[in-house]
Write a structure and sequence with these properties.
Largest sheet: none
Strand content: under 5%
Radius of gyration: 19 Å
Number of strands: 0
Number of helices: 11
Order of helices and strands: HHHHHHHHHHH
Distance between the termini: 35 Å
Shape: globular
Oligomer: single chain
């Protein structure tokens, strides 16, 4: 399919590029659109061929609307194929993680709410207890789905979701892959401190040179 032309928007380009680079630790300006990442992206077809190179191009040209409203950000599976193929070692998965947070902070509704709910429930559970407890994690995830479907008056979708999860859970329990116990790890205070430090970094309260994501 033909590649769309991206209009350069100077009013937003510089700030958007700097913010994404600072928070993701990826050098977007090193991308020269060789499209090796696009050739290996396993979700390209699912995202309407919104490939990593196109996403980077949107960021560099200052297309905020396109950056915060595309499926790649939420459907990226973090396989890191793009980073392995990139001659300049740009890992789009880290860029997508950054854009997830920026989308939520900007209060832009994700194109795939279920992925956003899953991401939020997972990270909060892991931060709270130092590890993910499946019953709590899935309960909060399904609660978010219920509230969203209720707001959109789409209860049929919620009933279908619950039915699928029950069938999936039963199959996992049969294989003894579903854990109902509640566990927590040591060092939860350190995990929360790391999260707070990261939040301070996002707000610019820590020197930029310390914000080196590896």
């Amino acid at each position: 399919m033909p590649k769309p032309i991206h209009q350069f928007i100077p009013a937003t380009a510089k700030n958007l590029v700097q913010e994404v680079m600072k928070r993701s630790g990826q050098n977007l300006t090193a991308c020269y659109q060789c499209r090796r990442c696009a050739a290996g992206c396993p979700v390209a077809e699912e995202t309407g061929y919104m490939t990593p190179d196109r996403l980077i191009r949107m960021i560099v040209t200052g297309d905020c609307q396109g950056v915060f409203n595309n499926k790649l950000v939420w459907q990226c599976v973090s396989c890191l194929t793009c980073g392995a193929r990139c001659p300049n070692d740009i890992k789009t998965a880290k860029i997508n993680d950054t854009l997830k947070q920026m989308t939520l902070e900007a209060r832009v509704k994700p194109l795939t709410p279920k992925v956003a709910f899953f991401h939020d429930a997972f990270t909060k559970s892991a931060t709270r207890w130092g590890r993910v407890n499946e019953p709590e994690f899935m309960s909060f995830y399904e609660l978010k789905n219920f509230l969203n479907d209720t707001a959109e008056k789409n209860l049929k979708a919620f009933i279908k979701e619950v039915r699928q999860q029950v069938e999936f859970g039963a199959a996992m329990a049969k294989l003894r892959r579903l854990h109902f116990g509640f566990e927590m790890s040591q060092g939860r205070r350190e995990i929360k401190q790391l999260l707070k430090k990261h939040q301070r970094m996002k707000k610019g309260q820590v020197e930029t040179k310390e914000n080196q994501w590896k």
